[in-house]
Amino acid sequence: xxxxxxxxxxxxxxxxxxxxxxxxxxxxxxxxxxxxxxxxxxxxxxxxxxxxxxxxxxxxxxxxxxxxxxxxxxxxxxxxxxxxxxxxxxxxxxxxxxxxxxxxxxxxxxxxxxxxxxxxxxxxxxxxxxxxxxxxxxxxxxxxxxxxxxxxxxxxxxxxxxxxxxxxxxxxxxxxxxxxxxxxxxxxxxxxxxxxxxxxxxxxxxxxxxxxxxxxxxxxxxxxxxxxxxxxxxxxxxxxxxxxxxxxxxxxxxxxxxxxxxxxxxxxxxxxxxxxxxxxxxxxxxxxxxxxxxxxxxxxxxxxxxxxxxxxxxxxxxxxxxxxxxxxxxxxxxxxxxxxxxxxxxxxxxxxxxxxxxxxxxxxxxxxxxxxxxxxxxxxxxxxxxxxxxxxxxxxxxxxxxxxxxxxxxxxxxxxxxxxxxxxxxxxxxxxxxxxxxxxxxxxxxxxxxxxxxxxxxxxxxxxxxxxxxxx
Length: 472
Hints:
The chain is 23% helix and 23% strand.
């Protein structure tokens, strides 16, 4: 089952061979995973490119509007709400929890550590299996932690914690003076038009099932309201809504969170698990290396349901896979394979090259080849008005830079004499253009490293000086 349309708001349809490969992956995933149903979708640049599904019941095949429970993908929504508070100046990621939510017993942990699961908190709340029992059994926030909730030294390792996100949801409620569900609806769901993402199921929705491991038989799973644990895994959503949410995680949306802030969420923020360098965690976002690509998104599970959302920014791709089985389908691998199928078969066609709109002719004097010691680097002016530094041979430290405003001794603002690193080794570091007395460019100062036009140029300010007898 595939979908296509002549709607101009949708991208060009995928090639028939690509569509068949996608459907084949979904069919194999549903069959081998023994899931009652499985629905999947792929979007590019915010527009739905393909969807497909399989079901064990003829005539009841789900589509992109069918709700499934998405489990821990809920955490990414909660993290967005926290990042909004940060961007508004209502909290800092370095703040201890105690500053905003006193009396929890875990107040020394920072907001950043809770977002990245690096606070050392226990993985699950105490008591009966919380995902299969009513949230009313844990009426207070303290019921999600219990005694001895901090198991590891804070900041030392990644240890996934569901109670940590219950705490973050409580921070949202405290600072917004409203329920987590209402803040979520107002600040994310409405602006992004996620009308089929809800706290409680809304028809049409799939039922949750457990499939017997040694027999082709099914058992319905109970659907519980998670109560104060809701910010960790309560939500229901659809493949269509999650594709739209994934597009937001790629490029941001000024109504919700800037592109810079969602990029920060996608950056690694916690140490990887021991012996697992192929995965990581940002701020409410899981990271995975698959086939040479770094994917960002989240997986989710609750009794009766499995879910996965992956994004790849360079390709502008989002993939979603949803199943109504407690276990069986390799949901993360299925979603990753769908994304890779499109990226490999139909890679993004790059935008046409265009010259700079506002070209600063004076900056040409810093473009070209530079040397840090004997290492050759190129410095290029790029179309967005920034600079790009990259090694000319072998491996080396490269970064992109954006101009910042700085003042000279007279207090006048001079734009472009100092640049700030955006990524790589020099992220956040300053690149200064140092001029001689006659106004010509002398050298570049990159975080105290001196870059000269010639290797160890004796005429420049090379730290440690240059042997007067020169090269020999």
